[in-house]
Design a protein that fits this description.
single chain, mainly alpha, Multidrug-efflux Transporter Regulator, Chain: A, Domain 2, 3-stranded antiparallel β-sheet
């Protein structure tokens, strides 16, 4: 079946002028012409037009589309698969937007007038989360399923922490430590205790000042909470470490604290991918763990033994570590394997 340019324009939703332009630049040249000179498009031409419109939907320019289609390995199946993925993403985004608008609609129905800031915050936070998290991750992130307002328990907690900071209460104060403990408990709950989600959440917080302003949690407040939470660990470590070892620990404990969640996230990904502890990837994770551990524990093996004893005897030290027994077991095996490899290489040399 052959289609005239007017028929193709009508059935494709494009204009005749657009199809003429595609012909003029060599992007879509009709395969045949009638005796009277009319352009006639066959099945292959229509398939090529599908490719062109699909690529335009991906944001490519006409010149880029021409270069792409000139490649001999272009696959219509692959292109349609990409279209389906894009549509699925758009449907997911629309579904989440609808859920948030339903919340606002419910407020209006009850006579509660949302402020302009509420509407803007709903839309801004939605698009912000979409930039950092996949659909599957958003489904596992409880805080995304909250309403357009910040949950009251977080609002109250942020207010309490800000009050301590404004009063210059040091992180070592028992009040600060209690709030930090509440903070980490809520954070673990609202990220399903998944280091991968927390690492992305932290990255979003770092890179999006508007998020910090919206939820009232500045980087200074986050660091204050981290120091206060670290102080809850200091009291435990004091039972195991010498005064000199404690001075080193206090001076260095929080410096690289935000690197731990990403390491734990990568360990969890390795476990999900069935990576072996004695593999190159396992050794790489073990090396990162060793570097972070030594950053606050120092290089003395005798001190390391004290830390291990504390971790074995004090379950509270694992709180807020984003690690479970399976992850810890993987790291222990990876560290032992890496150490064995290093010793073998040393003996050979």
């Amino acid at each position: 079946m052959l289609l005239k340019v007017g028929e193709l324009a009508k059935r494709s939703g494009l204009t005749v002028r657009t199809l003429h332009h595609y012909d003029a630049i060599g992007l879509l040249t009709p395969s045949a012409r009638a005796d009277n000179g009319y352009r006639l498009y066959d099945r292959d031409d229509v398939a090529r037009l599908h490719r062109i419109q699909a690529l335009r939907g991906f944001g490519l320019s006409l010149a880029e589309i021409g270069a792409y289609l000139s490649r001999p390995d272009t696959s219509l199946t692959e292109l349609i698969t990409r279209q389906i993925t894009l549509l699925d993403t758009q449907i997911d985004e629309a579904t989440r937007l609808r859920a948030r608008l339903d919340t606002l609609h419910g407020m209006l129905t009850k006579g509660e007038e949302p402020a302009l800031a509420d509407w803007l915050n709903t839309l801004e936070m939605m698009t912000m989360f979409d930039r950092y998290f996949s659909k599957e991750e958003l489904d596992r992130l409880p805080m995304v399923r909250q309403t357009h307002t910040q949950p009251a328990e977080w609002t109250d907690l942020v207010s309490d922490v800000r009050a301590l900071m404004d009063a210059d209460v040091p992180p070592a104060d028992a009040r600060a430590q209690a709030l930090a403990d509440r903070w980490m408990t809520l954070l673990a709950r609202d990220t399903n205790n998944d280091a991968r989600l927390f690492a992305k959440l932290n990255r979003m917080h770092e890179q999006e000042p508007s998020m910090q302003a919206s939820i009232g949690i500045s980087t200074a407040m986050r660091d204050y909470v981290i120091r206060a939470f670290g102080e809850t660990k200091m009291a435990i470590y004091e039972k195991y470490l010498s005064p000199e070892e404690m001075r080193f620990l206090r001076a260095n404990y929080g410096k690289r604290a935000m690197e731990w969640p990403q390491l734990m996230a990568d360990v969890r990904d390795a476990l999900d991918a069935s990576v072996a502890p004695d593999s190159p990837r396992g050794h790489e994770l073990a090396a990162r763990h060793d570097e972070l551990f030594r950053s606050y524990a120092g290089d003395d093996p005798r001190t390391h033994a004290k830390f291990r004893a504390a971790l074995m005897n004090e379950p509270e030290l694992m709180k807020g570590s984003w690690a479970d027994e399976r992850m810890i077991g993987f790291l222990r095996a990876a560290v032992a394997s890496r150490l064995g490899s290093i010793q073998t290489m040393t003996q050979r040399n």
